[in-house]
Amino acid sequence: MSSVEPRNSKPKTLATEAPSREPQAKGSTNPFFEPQNVLLFLLAIRLLNALTLHTFFQPDEYFQALEPAWKLAFGEDTGAWITWEWREHLRSAIHPAIFSLAYKAADALAALLSVDGARKGEVLLAAPKILQACFAAVGDFYTWKLAGYIYGRKSTCALTALALTVISPWQWFTSTRTFANSLETTLTATALYNWPWHWSSEVVPQISNAGSRTGGLRVRGDEFSPQEPVDEVTRLRRALLCAALATVLRPTNILIWASLTYFAFIRRLVTVSLTWLELATFVRETALCGGIVLLLSTIVDRIFYGAWVFPPYHFLLVNVVQSLASFYGNNDWHYYLSQGYPLLLTTALPFTFIGFYRSFAIRSANSLQQITLRLLSVVCLLVPAAFSNIAHKEVRFIYPLLPALHVISAEPMASFFEPLLLGHGLQPSSSVQKKRAPSSTLPTRLLFFVLLTINMGIAYYTTQIHNSGLISLTSYLRSEFSSSPSSTTSGSSISASSRPPPLRNMTVGMLMPCHSTPWRSHMQHPAMQSTPGILAWALTCEPPLRLNASEKAVYLDEADVFYADPSAWLKRHMSRDTPLVTRRDGSRGTATSFAPGFFAEDSRSDRMVHIPSNSNNHRRGRGGDDAQQHPWWTTRHGRRPWPDYLAFFAQLEPTLQSALRGSGYMECRRLFNSHWHDDRRRTGDVVVWCLDERRVGVAPGSASASASASASGGEKSPAGAVETGPEPVAVPEQDFQAIAQPRLERVVEKPFWKVRDPAP
Q1: Cα(634)–Cα(597) distance, rounded to whole angstroms?
Q2: Residue 428, class by beta-carbon neighbours within 10 Å (0-12 exposed, 13-18 middle, 19+ buried)?
Q3: Which sequence ranges are marked TM in the entry (predicted)?
Q4: Residue 675 to residue 664: CA distance in whole angstroms
């Protein structure tokens, strides 16, 4: 018996076949459920989400999106950190190219409004956040539309899917971050909504007129735009374009569409009546849309890389075939089941498992709703199973499945909480055959608020508290540069009176695990030839590229070498010249010529010969440009100069207090970061040491910052007492020659880390 209904019979439509789709209730005119109102609501939510996000998650948010975008927008020499993936052509440049347009627009807007300095920095900081918030809102919107297509736009299930995506802790934590996975998720949700699910069914919803543009194709009903229905070819093209773009961004996204194509078309070509016209249309449009996206990607990559490259090939070769991603960590085979799904779904996880069970247990083969849910469930189970064969696993890799998971979870959750959801023009779920007894309403209401509180608590903690110090650090450094007098103050009163002060960059060193903080996108202020800026370095973690198996087995990156023996690394890689300390009066010199830092007493003066102030070391230091003009900043070879600021986690503090004893570094800022961390190297506060007494204990940008810059004062001792030093005396430069030279003609000064107090 043929499963195809005759053309002259009344076609079964999705609206009549889907169990949850019942006739619209009279008078159900709640304006909230109008698509434009839902989209505006989601935009407002995600803008709030993006602009209040103040925590660090993973480096890819910045180094795989904003850093190359900064380079595209502002040029090669603007200090963007381009990681090894870009040098090896592993990433498509489409994603950063999108954010480079946001940077360009923000820069043009700032110029139009004559906004400069710190305010312009805030505009540049907000631009990619706003753009990503729009992407996130679109993803939420199409998740709701997919649920509305399956269950009915005004059903409690569609509202539940919308609520799930809005209050999801993972969505609140991740969706507005500039990960490629975040945009991939939005594109996946959009493609899933536009996917021709009805072509996989034995039901014949409607066949378009032979003379129309889509003649002979089965047409699905569109509850969201009944007055202007979208034709099938246009809808299919939307799905395929989004799927192709998501695959270019993250080649592993192809697993979703390969699974759907097999189960929806290839497998059902034999079992159900998929027409040859529909199959030919699908193949033709797949080739057309895939070719367009591939051509666009090739052109953008050619502009970015300066060569003809194919990033998806390099991505799969390095990460899958060579398994180089395992260098950044391996996980158990059950990671996605034991950690991935729980992190994605949190309190919705039990309802997801119920949804999986129902999608396979109910055998209503002619239901489009059931077929769609079953296909979504198959994809949500197969893709993590495939990813489980790769050693390196991350929750972000299965993030594009979250819209489908929310839709699957919506019906069981709506069934459970339906007494709280009915009303306001909503239709009841078909799975609830009778109204729940009033006695069960109170426990249900209490459970609902418990789950809501848990979700909101997790969302707040992860977006405002955990790992917040790393974002605060970049804000602090930006503010320090904007308010620091070192950019205008020379090294001594002599040079200040004789010539204009030189340009002075602010230098920063990050003694942290690699990529622990955002970079140029958040620090901003690149050091240019005509204007001062922030010069910074951090420990790296380059993977073992082009090494054999034995070499890979013993390979350690720079961060690993540092943490194996921090003191030895400092002796081997840092300058042997003593850092120059800036006093409260603006004068500069070594800790031995002024006062040491917090962590040493000045007990070395009787065992060291001080280099006179007219020596080359101090003559360079007087202008304040010794460190910034060090050849290391251009060659990146040799010993690094001591930076103005050192940032590290509190876990490293005892080691550095010993290794840098007497260096002159002082604690300028301590920023709360986390209560706990799974990486012991990142535990504790973020600590900032500096070589400028004027910055000690001064809140960045405060009124006291400028006052402390001009006020002379004593040095805080380890015990907290204040020792008042002698007032500095200005000496004319020509009188330096009259100063008596030391008796010793040869002066040898040990590096400060080799000088220790005598044993008691």
Answers
A1: 29
A2: buried
A3: 239-264, 340-360, 372-391
A4: 30
User: How does residue 228 score in pLDDT terms, banded at 50, 70 and 90?
Assistant: low
Choose among 158, 177, 171, 146: nearest CA to 66: 177
638 three-class SS: coil
Whether 512 and 680 have beta carbons less than 8 Å apart is answered as no
Backbone angles phi, psi at 487, to 5 degrees: -80, -15
Q: How far apart are CA 167 and CA 481, in angstroms?
A: 38
3-state secondary structure 654-713: HHHHHHCCCCCCEEEEEECCCCCCCCHHHCCCEEEEECEHHHCCCCCCCHHHHHHHHCCC
Which of the 8 DSSP states describes residue 434?
S
Contact 282, 236 (CB under 8 A): yes
Q: Two tokens at 753?
A: 């880390």
Number of H helices, E strands in the chain: 31, 9
User: Rounded CA gap, 459 and 449, in Å?
Assistant: 15
Q: How far is CA 302 from CA 494, 503, 671, in A?
A: 54, 37, 42
Instruction: Read off the pLDDT of each residue in 746-756 and give the average, rounded to a whole number.
Output: 49
Contact 94, 300 (CB under 8 A): yes
Token duo for residue 390: 């790769």
Q: Of the candidates 410, 721, 736, 470, which has an alpha carbon nearest to the alpha carbon of residue 595? A: 721
Q: What is the pLDDT of residues 474-492, one digit of tens each?
A: 999 999 998 865 444 333 3
pLDDT at residue number 634: 85
User: How far is the CA of 136 from the CAs of 279, 352, 466, in angstroms?
Assistant: 33, 22, 22
- More confident: 328 or 596: 328
**Partners of 427 in the β-ladder:** 155
Of the candidates 667, 635, 634, 637, the one whose C-alpha atom is nearest the C-alpha of residue 650 is 667
Residue that wins the pLDDT comparison between 318 and 432: 318
Torsion of CA 689, 692, 695, 700, to 10 degrees: -80
| Cβ-contact 578, 589 below 8 angstroms | no
Angle 276-305/94-112 helices, nearest 10 degrees?
Answer: 60
Beta strands at 645-649 and 686-690: parallel, antiparallel or unpaired:
antiparallel
Categorize the per-residue pLDDT at 267 as very low, low, confident or very high, splitting at 50, 70 and 90.
low
- Reply yes or no on whether the pLDDT at 54 is more than 60: yes
**Does residue 278 surpass a pLDDT of 80?**
yes
Task: Spell out the residues 6+ positions from residue 388 whose beta carbon is closer than 8 angstroms to its own.
Answer: 333, 334, 335, 336
For residues 567 and 525, give the distance between their C-alpha atoms in angstroms, rounded to a whole number: 31
Q: Is the predicted pLDDT of residue 61 greater than 90, yes or no?
A: yes
pLDDT greater than 50 at residue 601: no
Spatial strand order in the sheet of 534-538: 534-538, 506-511, 645-649, 686-690, 666-671
H helices within 208-326, ranges in order? 232-249, 254-261, 268-271, 276-305, 311-316
From CA 382, how far away is CA 388, in angstroms rounded? 10
Among residues of the chain, what percentage have pLDDT more than 70? 71
What is each CA distance from 346 to 165, 169, 343, 409, in whole angstroms?
A: 12, 8, 6, 12
* Chain segment 692-706, per-residue pLDDT in tens: 777 665 555 454 444
Indicate the DSSP class of residue 739.
Answer: S
Please state at what angle helix 117-151 crosses helix 402-421, rounded to 10 degrees.
70
Model pLDDT for residues 606-638, shown as the tens digit of each residue? 333 333 333 333 333 333 444 556 788 888 888
Q: Is the pLDDT of residue 741 over 50?
A: no
- Phi/psi for 651 (5° steps) reads -60, -30
Contact 18, 150 (CB under 8 A): yes
Are the C-beta atoms of 469 and 682 separated by less than 8 Å? no
Please state whether beta strands 588-590 and 506-511 pair in parallel, antiparallel, or not at all (unpaired).
unpaired
201 φ, ψ to 5°? Answer: -110, 160
